[in-house]
Amino acid sequence: MRDGALTRITALVRQDVRLLLRDPAPLVVRTVMPLLIMGFMQPLFRAALRAGGEAADANGAEQGVPGMAVMFLFFLVNVVGFAMFREHGWNTWDRLRASTARPVELLAARVVVPLAAAVLQLAVIFGAGGALFDLRVTGSLLALVVVALPLALCVVMVGMALVALCRTISQLSVIANILALVFAGLGGALTPQSAMPDWAEPFAPAVPSYWAMRGFNEVVLRGGGVADVLLPAGVLCAFTAGLTAVTLVFFRADHRKLSWS
Question: How crowded is residue 34: how many other Cβ atoms within 10 Å of its Cβ?
Answer without folding.
Answer: 26
